[in-house]
Amino acid sequence: MALIKHHLKYIAVLVFCFISFNVFAQKESYIQSLNHQNHWVDSVFKKLSRKKKIAQLFFVRAHTDRGQAYEDSVAKVIKDEQLGGVVFFQGGPVRHAQLINNYQKLVKVPLLITMDGEWGLGMRIDSAISYPFQMTLGAIQDNSLIYKMGEQVGYDFKRLGMQMNLGPDMDVNNNPNNPVINYRSFGDNKYNVAAKGIAYFKGMQDAGILTTAKHFPGHGDTNVDSHLDLPLLPFTRQRLDSLEEYPFQQAINADISGVMIAHMNIPALDTTKNLPSTLSRPIVTGELKDSLRFKGLVVSDAMEMKAVIKYFPDGEADLRAFLAGNDIIELSENSERAIKKIRKAIRKHKITKEEFNAKVKKVLAAKYWAGLNQYHETDINHLAEDLHRPAATNLIQQLSDAAVTLVKGSAAGLQMIPLHRTALVSVGAEGTVFQAELAKWYTYNRWFNIGKTSTVAELNNILTTLKDYDQVYVSINDTRARPASKLDYSADIKQFISSLAAHNNTVITLFANAYTIADLPGIEKCSALLVCYQMTDALQRSAVKVITQQLKPTGRLPVTINKDFTTGMRGSL
C-alpha cells in the first residue's frame, strides 16, 4: 500500500509539472511582445519608403468565388501598392490557400492574412467546418469548451495560411431586433459576454492567431445595420462605460491583440453630426487608447460600408480613420487614393511622426508575432482532411451537447413513454436528423412534415389526425443561413404551432434563434420546451440525447425573450 501511495504521489508531481510547463511555456501575447525592441521590425521599417509604410496599414478584400479576372485585379493592387494585408471572404479552402500563396509572392513584406471567423472558417468558406454561433455558445456553462474551440479555430486559420481572425464579437446584444449582431453575440449579460469572449480569443491566441474584439464601443443595442446606414447610439457615457464597453475593457485587461471600431454615431462620446465612431479621434484615441489604455491593433470596420461612405465619400473616410487613431484600415474603396491623401496629411503635420511610426511598427510587430518573419507557403496536400479532422467534429458535438437549454418542464418528463403512439412533427424542414434519431426510441411513431407554404386545410387535417396520438414531439426549424429574431413562417403556421403546444403531452424543441419564442404566442403552453438556438445535425443529436435521458440539459438562456423566459433561466433537471 505504501508503495502504491508513493507511485501515486510521484504521478501527481509529474502531472503538476507537466501542467505548469505548459502554462509557462505558452507563447507571450502580442501585447506583451510590444514591450521589447524587435530587430526584425526595426530592420523592415527602415527599408520602407513613407508610401510603403502607409501601405502597411491597408487591407484589401479577396474572394475565390468571383473568377480569375477579379483575383487578378486584386493581385495588381497588392503588387503595385505593396499593401499590408488581405481580408478573405467567400470561396473554397483549397482555392483560398492557393491564392494566399500566390498573393504572398507579390510582396516584399509578407501579407497579414485575415478573415471574419466568428464561428470558424465556415462563416466565409464553403466545404469548411462551422462551429456553433456565439449565441449558442452563450448558453454553455463550461467556458473551457469555448477555449478549446478557440484552439481549433486557430489551428484552422494557420493551416490555411492565415494569421488573424476578425473575431470574437464582444457586443452585448440587448436589443432582440438587432439586425446585424443578434445571434453573433454571446448574449445580453455583459459578464457572460466578457467571460466567453475571453475564453474564445485566449484559445485562438494560444494557438498563435491574432484576434480582434468587435465592435467597439458596442453594437448590441442598435436597430440599424451599419452596412446600410449609420446607426445612432443615444446612450449616456455612464451607460456606455458600465454596459457596452465592459466586455472590451475585460478583453483589454486579458491582453487581446486587436479591437475593431464600429461605425456608429455616439453623441455622448463625440457630438460631431453624422460622424461614425471609426472616424472619431475622441472615441478611437481618447476613449479606447487613452481611457481604456489599449496598446494593441486598432482595426476599422469595413470602410466600404454605407455608414461611412454615405457621409464621407471620395477617400475622406480613410483619411479620417487614419487620423482618428486606427492602425489597420480595412477594405478601403480605393487604397491608392487613400494613401495619397494620408501622405499629404503627414506632410502637413496633421499627425506626429511618432504616432505614425508607432502604427506601422505595430502592424510589423503583429506580422513578426504571427511568424511571418519566417514565412512558409501553405501546403495544399491533405488540406481538406486536416480541416475536417475528428478533433474538430468531436468538439462541435461537445459544444452542442453543452448548449441545449430546457426552459420549461423537467428533464425527467421529456422522454414520456416509448411504447405509446408517438407523432414526430417537423415544422419548416422535412425528414430531419431529429426525427430520424428520435424514431429509434419510439416503436409506434409517425412523421409529420409541415412546409413553410402548407395551407390552412392541410394544417387542420394534421391537427385532427394528431388527436389520435398519445404524445407529440415537435421541432421548429429555421433553415436560413442567418437565423433572425422572427421566423419566416406564415401567421397560419404560427397559429398551428400554438395549437400543437396546447395538445396534451407535447414537447417542443426549437432549432432556431431563441428570440423567435416571442414571435410564437402560445408556445409556452407545451409540456416542455427545449431551446437549441440553430439548426445543425449536431444540435439535433444533442436534443435527442436530452429527451432520451442520455444527457442532462445544462445550458442556460443567454438572452431575455420576455417575462416568462429570462437570461440565465433553465428548467428542472
Quick summary:
The chain is an alpha/beta fold. It is 42% helix and 11% strand. The protein is elongated and about 80 Å long.
Q: Share of helix among residues?
A: 40-55%
Shape: elongated
**What structural class do the secondary elements suggest?**
alpha/beta
Describe the oligomeric state of these chains in a short phrase: single chain
Strand-residue fraction?
Answer: 5-15%
C-alpha termini separation: 41 Å
Rg is: 26 Å
Unreliable segments (pLDDT under 50, ≥5 consecutive)? 1-25
| DSSP summary: helix tally | 22
Strand element count: 14
Question: Which strand order do you get reading across the main beta sheet?
Answer: 7-6-5-4-3-2-1-8
The biggest beta sheet is recorded as: 8 strands, parallel
Mean pLDDT: 94
Q: What does the model show?
A:
The protein is of the alpha/beta class and 573 residues long. It is 42% helix and 11% strand. The longest helix is centred in the N-terminal third of the chain and has 24 residues, at 2-25. It has helices at 2-25, 30-33, 39-47, 50-55, 68-81, 93-104, 134-137, 143-160, 190-206, 237-244, 246-253, 281-291, 306-309, 316-324, 335-347, 353-369, 383-387, 390-403, 433-439, 456-466, 491-502, 537-547, and strands at 58-62, 85-88, 112-115, 164-165, 210-216, 258-261, 297-300, 329-330, 405-408, 422-427, 445-450, 471-477, 506-511, 528-531. Strands 7-6-5-4-3-2-1-8 form an eight-stranded parallel sheet. It is elongated and about 80 Å long.
